[in-house]
């Protein structure tokens, strides 16, 4: 049998042959060949030569890049040529075969230069086709097979792998205009991983392809510098799914896409105007719930501790509906909006802490349409009406010598003094604060930035978990007051118990100073018998004995080492969930409080007690942090309440005792010891791709604890188009000898050991035990319901049995 050379890449040449009127010639040649075969078979029979024509099936497939490309991606639809499928051939080896060149091959291949075997192209050679196409490379049994170069008459070239006449494997397409594709090829089209560069525009794409379309994960660059690009999900040449878009201006969007536009949840950062929006998008515009923030670069210690920020609903990019606007001065508006204006019912909190609630119309108070409501500063009393049924003069206040940004709120403790002395007390304490105001600002800035990421605008605001650290550093808890007691004293008549003791709640500078005065009064006012110390004296005493000597000397196991803080903070949010679970375990009323006795029970219940971390050691850990645990003599007081800061720091201390060297050695086969964990399990770490849209805990908020591992702006800008080989080999290339880890110092070894111990303690013990407890709590009601149903079924069966017995006895 003669095996033909069925090359589908030559279909165009074959069609040209037919169109030139040579069909009759082809038919005549085939008939002449069949006639000669019959003559041979009827002649000499001593040698049998059997030949069987092969059949070829040709089909074409288009390998194109769609012209529908966002950001003016050029189309190369006309660039690809028809690709051909593998043809079927039938070979019979029942008898000796004498090969000769097939007739179809003679009609399409005008000339061949190279090696042959049994009349078929074999080895390395060059085939010239009728229309001017040329193939140079490897042949096998008459087929293009192996490495080769196929050049079309119009200049398009493919260089790469061929399998049974099909471009398949790895190859490179080049076009006359300079465009180039390098990567995976299947049946002549782009399929798999590859890099495409446009020759007419500075556009390139590297990533996944599916049937010649960008599909899957990929990155497209829109300029030569690599400053304008998109990286993320593609569906049929369209940006759809999750992706990051960096514009040439430096603005960055990270979030969901649909039909090439921002759609869904995402974050946009306008670096040119120092703005950021995180929330919902519809067809490229802010629509739905979100947060818009305006950043203003300022020096450290600025009198404005906040940034302008709106959180609420948007319609077509405008503030519309219910929302809250917090101004950098500390003022706030919360209520209804209409097309970026305050309109409807709303509540204003001025920077001095006073409030006004009422109707607003087009950014003005409806009752006072002539009063300009500038919330970056409080209106002057002289600008207000002389008569005010709402008492707006009293709301805004007349100010103090400290300025409106730290106007004090001392109403709860002034009641302890006679009415005729209250004004004098306020003036005395204001002068005392004025003498220390610079120190207080410095302390506020220090603790508000404690354990936080770098802020793009040097703006930090103090949270309660940082306030607790300040109070413990300054030894306020040595005055027979727990942090819970202090929280209650600082929030008299302000917040219900259920809203107290939240670590993510924030305090402005004015509240911070007012709280210090409140605590100073309760600690010092009765130190002299039969004499009530003035507020100024109490405040000065606390400043001199507690704050000035101890402030900014950070203690405790959470905030004391900034490097460790950034690594153990990833456990904070899950531990807050556990803390709330324990607080509510034995209480029907929602509270954010637990006692030390419950902490010890928690460790026992979760099997976190061993020979090293026994009950005595746990009590020692609690006593080191709070001297009230061990009172006079051998008494131990475990009825003291614990804030979340104390709970979390106690766990960190327990981790270093529970995970001892023996346990580290036992886990050395499965856990990397003395090496900082490269990653944490996703279920116990924070979301690094998108922020939560609803108001969330401080552990996720920017400017708070280290939890973000997003790509920085510098990393965004430094990206360049990688080569295909670099992309493919990045995960498989062996490391060189020079890449080996250098010996680490004893300090670094000890640091890595600390991180490993905490990692094992939380990931392998606490969090799994908590998850089992939650699962058990969920299964208990189901088990009870199943048992109740089983009892009912047994009761029904028993009653039915008794009924049948009574019927049977009746018949007998």
TrEMBL record:
<keyword id="KW-0963">Cytoplasm</keyword>
<dbReference type="Pfam" id="PF02493">
    <property type="entry name" value="MORN"/>
</dbReference>
<keyword id="KW-0966">Cell projection</keyword>
<keyword id="KW-0677">Repeat</keyword>
<dbReference type="GO" id="GO:0005930">
    <property type="term" value="C:axoneme"/>
</dbReference>
<dbReference type="InterPro" id="IPR003409">
    <property type="entry name" value="MORN"/>
</dbReference>
<keyword id="KW-0282">Flagellum</keyword>
<feature type="compositionally biased region" description="Low complexity">
    <location>
        <begin position="56"/>
        <end position="67"/>
    </location>
</feature>
<keyword id="KW-0969">Cilium</keyword>
<protein>
    <submittedName>
        <fullName>Radial spoke head 10 homolog B-like isoform X2</fullName>
    </submittedName>
</protein>
<dbReference type="GO" id="GO:0031514">
    <property type="term" value="C:motile cilium"/>
</dbReference>
<feature type="region of interest" description="Disordered">
    <location>
        <begin position="717"/>
        <end position="742"/>
    </location>
</feature>
<feature type="region of interest" description="Disordered">
    <location>
        <begin position="34"/>
        <end position="88"/>
    </location>
</feature>
<feature type="compositionally biased region" description="Basic and acidic residues">
    <location>
        <begin position="34"/>
        <end position="55"/>
    </location>
</feature>
<keyword id="KW-0206">Cytoskeleton</keyword>
């Amino acid at each position: 049998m003669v095996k033909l050379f069925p090359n589908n890449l030559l279909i165009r040449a074959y069609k040209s042959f037919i169109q030139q009127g040579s069909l009759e010639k082809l038919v005549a040649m085939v008939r002449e060949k069949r006639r000669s075969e019959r003559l041979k078979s009827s002649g000499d029979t001593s040698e049998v030569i059997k030949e069987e024509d092969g059949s070829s099936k040709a089909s074409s497939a288009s390998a194109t890049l769609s012209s529908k490309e966002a950001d003016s991606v050029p189309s190369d639809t006309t660039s690809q040529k028809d690709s051909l499928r593998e043809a079927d051939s039938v070979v019979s080896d029942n008898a000796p075969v004498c090969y000769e060149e097939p007739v179809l091959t003679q009609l399409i291949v005008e000339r061949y230069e190279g090696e042959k075997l049994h009349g078929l192209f074999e080895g390395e050679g060059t085939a010239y086709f009728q229309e001017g196409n040329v193939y140079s490379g490897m042949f096998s049994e008459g087929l293009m097979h192996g490495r080769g170069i196929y050049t079309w008459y119009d200049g398009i070239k493919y260089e790469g792998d061929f399998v049974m006449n099909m471009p398949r494997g790895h190859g490179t397409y080049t076009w006359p205009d300079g465009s180039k594709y390098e990567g995976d090829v299947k049946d002549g089209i782009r399929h798999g991983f590859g890099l495409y560069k446009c020759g007419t525009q500075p556009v390139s794409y590297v990533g996944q392809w599916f049937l010649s379309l960008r599909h899957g994960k990929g990155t497209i660059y829109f300029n030569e510098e690599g400053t304008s690009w998109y990286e993320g999900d593609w569906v049929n040449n369209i940006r759809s799914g999750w992706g990051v878009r960096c514009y040439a201006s430096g603005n960055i969007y990270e979030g969901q896409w649909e039909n090439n536009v921002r759609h869904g949840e995402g974050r946009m950062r306008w670096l040119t105007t120092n703005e950021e929006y995180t929330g919902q998008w519809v067809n490229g515009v802010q629509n739905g719930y979100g947060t818009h923030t305006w950043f203003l670069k300022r020096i450290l210690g600025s009198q404005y501790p906040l940034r302008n920020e709106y959180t609420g609903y948007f319609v077509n990019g405008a503030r519309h509906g219910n929302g809250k606007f917090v101004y950098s001065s500390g003022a706030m508006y919360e209520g209804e909006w209409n097309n970026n204006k305050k309109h409807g019912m709303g509540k204003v909190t001025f920077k001095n802490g006073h409030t006004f609630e009422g109707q607003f119309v087009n950014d003005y108070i409806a009752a006072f349409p002539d009063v300009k409501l500038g919330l970056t500063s409080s209106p002057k009393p002289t600008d207000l009406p002389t008569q005010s049924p709402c008492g707006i003069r009293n709301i805004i206040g007349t100010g103090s010598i400290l300025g409106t940004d730290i106007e004090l709120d001392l109403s709860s403790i002034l009641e302890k003094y006679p009415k005729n002395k209250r004004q004098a007390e306020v003036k005395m304490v204001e002068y005392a604060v004025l003498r220390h105001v610079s120190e207080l600002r410095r302390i506020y800035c220090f603790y508000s930035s404690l354990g936080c990421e770098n802020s793009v605008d040097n703006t930090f605001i103090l949270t309660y978990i940082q306030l607790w650290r300040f109070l413990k550093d300054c030894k306020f808890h040595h005055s027979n007051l727990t942090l819970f007691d202090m929280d209650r004293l600082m929030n008299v008549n302000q917040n219900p118990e259920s809203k107290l003791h939240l670590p993510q709640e924030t305090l402005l500078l004015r509240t911070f100073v007012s709280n210090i005065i409140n605590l100073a009064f309760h600690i010092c006012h009765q130190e002299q018998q039969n004499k009530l110390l003035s507020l100024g004296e109490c405040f000065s005493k606390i400043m001199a004995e507690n704050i000035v000597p101890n402030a900014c000397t950070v203690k405790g196991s959470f905030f004391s080492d900034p490097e460790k803080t950034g690594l153990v903070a990833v456990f904070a949010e899950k531990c807050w969930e556990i803390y709330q679970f324990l607080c509510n375990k034995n209480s029907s009323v929602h509270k954010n409080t637990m006692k030390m006795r419950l902490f010890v029970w928690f460790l026992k219940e979760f099997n976190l007690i061993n020979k090293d971390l026994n009950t005595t050691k746990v009590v020692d850990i609690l006593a080191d942090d709070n001297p009230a645990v061990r009172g006079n003599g051998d008494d131990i007081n475990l009825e003291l309440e614990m804030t979340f800061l104390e709970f979390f720091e106690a766990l960190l201390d327990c981790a270093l005792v529970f995970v001892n060297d023996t346990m580290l050695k036992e886990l050395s086969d499965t856990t990397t010891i003395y090496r900082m964990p490269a990653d944490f399990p996703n279920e116990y770490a924070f979301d690094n791709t998108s922020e939560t849209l609803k108001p969330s805990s401080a552990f996720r908020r920017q400017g708070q604890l280290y939890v973000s591992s997003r790509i920085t702006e510098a990393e965004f800008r430094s990206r360049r188009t990688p080569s295909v080989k670099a992309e493919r080999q990045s995960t498989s290339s062996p490391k060189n000898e020079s890449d080996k880890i250098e010996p680490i110092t004893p300090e670094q070894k000890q640091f890595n050991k600390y991180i490993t111990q905490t990692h094992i303690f939380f990931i392998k013990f606490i969090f799994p035990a908590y998850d089992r407890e939650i699962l058990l709590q969920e299964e208990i009601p189901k088990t009870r319901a199943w048992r109740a149903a089983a009892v009912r079924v047994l009761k029904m069966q028993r009653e039915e049995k008794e009924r049948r017995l009574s019927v049977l006895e009746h018949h007998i």
